[in-house]
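The records we work with from here on pair a chain with its fold. Here is one such record, which you should read through line by line:
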Amino acid sequence: MNHFDLIDGVLHAEAVPLTLIAEAVGTPVYVYSTATIERHVEVFREALAGIDDPWIAYAVKANPNAAVLATLAKLGLGADVVSGGELMRARAAGIPAERIVFSGVGKTADEMALALREGIGQFNLESEPEAEMLADVAEMLGMVAPCAYRINPAVEAGTHSKISTGRADDKFGIAYDTALDAYARAAARPSLKMQGIAVHIGSQLTDLAPSRAAFEKVGLLLAALRAAGHAIVNADLGGGLGVPYDPAKPIPPLPAAYGEMVRDVTAGWNARLMFEPGRLIVGNAGVLLSRVIRVKEGVNRPFVILDAAMNDLLRPAMYEAWHDIRAVVPREGEMTAHVVGPICETGDTFARDREMDRVEAGDLVAFMTAGAYGATMGNTYNSRALTPEVLVSGKDWAVVRRRLPLETLIAGDELAPWLQQDQHAEA
């Protein structure tokens, strides 16, 4: 469910016409709906009804905008972070440290020290060398680090290969069969408190069977760890539940079905369950607005050339991802076209042979379901400015990341001293 609807022939975000935002802020621009974010949190919580005190840690990487994080903080969510920067963003937005879990395979000693000083709730360790580094850092600071090992269950998630994370040869977690020995070695370090177990098999999951298989393996390992004397109190089941992008593809499982499966599999675990939803919370809560520069005739299809590019929305180029593309002020009729951006790469293609609303130069279009892995993956390729972001709440709206001038981008470069001397000499 989202709050982007046609009202009097114009696509709105809640009660705000997208034409108003485009005229005021320019395009391309991301627009997020507070009501949609709030509704998705409510639906996910309802799906977990009957689970005692679930720890919901929003995956910051999906959309780290400060206003989005502050909205989620007000709703009582924690955060799943994968870098020191994400940790600082979560804390600045008001998310309590004890509700933060730190995942990721490449935590540095500095990031570990930052997280320890902040007092985060749990480190999800992804290798034994990482555990040794954390133990050393915590010992140096005179602290004890609350930890879990992320287990690689060797389960194929059935999602895109670039966002599948639980196969035997993926870089994430420790091998399932090595876990008992790894926990024993970690528990021997006094500066590590092995309090949990974690698993995450991938993103944009459209079938519950792989998750069930992974969770069942975690349940068996949880029992074995306790039998070996480890006081495991947390079980982090990760995130990854998909959202609908392409109407031609199977609809992802509803959160209610996911919650029912979790309750069934985890019955009797006697552990606090942790969840890391990201896309599920913000995916449908955002759109990317773009303006048609021109429509160019092609050999087989016309090209709709937009002012948004792959640097603004990378998912189609990176994952062959599908986004619905809608006219903000629909005209009569439809067209079949290739939809592309202005970057000098053939990969800067959003859609080929797409049946869509008929558009002309100057028209606005909206990429739907763009609230997750959109602005956060943006870059400045072709010396293009980062995309601004807007948050809507009812009739109100505000710019929550402004478009920096190109002069600011260029000013970030510095000439080497010998080149500065050449410039002075020429002057």
In short: The first strand starts at residue 4 and ends at 7. The two ends are 61 Å apart (CA to CA). The chain has two domains: 4-31+283-411, 34-282.
